[in-house]
């Protein structure tokens, strides 16, 4: 069964953000969500240096907020993760990673053997049959750091995302059809994303975050004993940041620096010395911000040179640093673009809880990358873990195939056994019917013997019978049928026929004789030969002598009588 809900966690230097959200759903619903202060000295540029301390605190917070879901997803914010937008030929999705690995040294001109590669699909390329990818490379030690943390927490690590991808999954939901320049000022770094509709045109990482400003503040004795959260709150509640880098532009000659007059350092009285320290701290903060704003301006110039036909509409500011008083005015004045704070996104709803509702509302706009990680994470997977997972899946596949083969064999055996039993039953039924008819066998044998005896008798009769048996009747017929003036001179009989020599007084009598022969039943085909005529004088009597050959022709009724 797939994962339906995950606990998405973004670990920052100052705060850790946690939310329980449905996994890979278009309409995202955030259930339980909370933010707590990250224990000091446990996080360094994305690395969890003191895993024991941090794991114990995270366990306590999850238990306190009654989150028992063991499916966890981390999104990492670190300057150690490299990204590069590339274009590859359009191939099937299962082959994209092979191309990324093969071209990795071209994407990142460095030794990446100890890095974990992954990517997110941005869309079609500028040319037909091309794909645009955003490729990421993270140090293997950083990735294993989070896998070790998950093991210590006793949870299942569903995916491991990068904050750049997490942000993109949410930022592409910004309404409007203009080009949006989004600045995400996080705790340890800043991420710039340039989008149009849902298309990511460019993404750059700036090595500047809230930690830079907090380090400056802790360099002053007024904040040396304060923690990062207290310093951050001070910047949010007091107008320390000027609207311009040039103080003359901001206040005019002789005026006190805006954001300084009328404010006190924590635990200090309003003295000239304290005011001088505040002014010095502001100057150093502005110099630190100058690096940040210059980097933003360079990205704007680079984009405008690269995309002259798609101008930037406005700048959006969000993230941890978006709450700093004066920062949006400074960016607007120094870049010349309108700056707007992002506080909500489409298709994301929070289920409000009465408990700690104010705290959640305070950090609501900061949770977006934490939520975005659950939409479509890139998922960094170490190669050894991937191979182990593939082997485990392969073993499961083999087991499944074995089970299917066993089931199929069992099914075939069952049907074969059923057919065998059916044939046995049919054999028994036929045997029973045969036994019931055994009384016929003696009768059939007697009938067979009678038939054989009859056939033998008929053969015997046929062998002993002869046409000469009808010879007497034939002679009687001749005496009856022959004309008066005809004499049988000679007579001979064989099995096949008769040979008779006749003497008549004329040819007319001979003709009458032959006609009479045809009327005798036993006469078949006849033949006349040796006709001689003699005598005929005054004193001599005329005679006609001839021979007749006769074939036996037994009448059918005679044969049937016999």
Structure notes:
- The protein starts with a strand and ends with a helix.
- The longest helix has 54 residues, at 383-436.
- It is α/β, with parallel strands linked by helices and 562 residues long.
- It has helices spanning 51-64, 93-102, 104-107, 140-153, 163-171, 210-218, 228-237, 247-251, 272-306, 327-335, 357-362, 368-372, 383-436, 440-464, 471-481, 507-518, 556-561, and strands spanning 5-11, 15-22, 28-37, 43-44, 47-48, 71-76, 82-89, 115-124, 130-139, 156-162, 179-185, 190-196, 199-206, 312-318, 339-341, 348-350, 486-493, 497-504, 523-534, 543-552.
- The protein is 42% helix and 25% strand.
- It has 17 helices and 20 strands.
- The radius of gyration is 60 Å and the shape is rod-shaped.
- Residues 251-262 and 557-562 have low confidence and may be disordered.
List the keywords:
562 residues; five-stranded mixed sheet; alpha/beta; six-stranded mixed sheet; single chain
Would you summarize the structure shown here?
The chain is an alpha/beta fold. The chain is 42% helix and 25% strand.
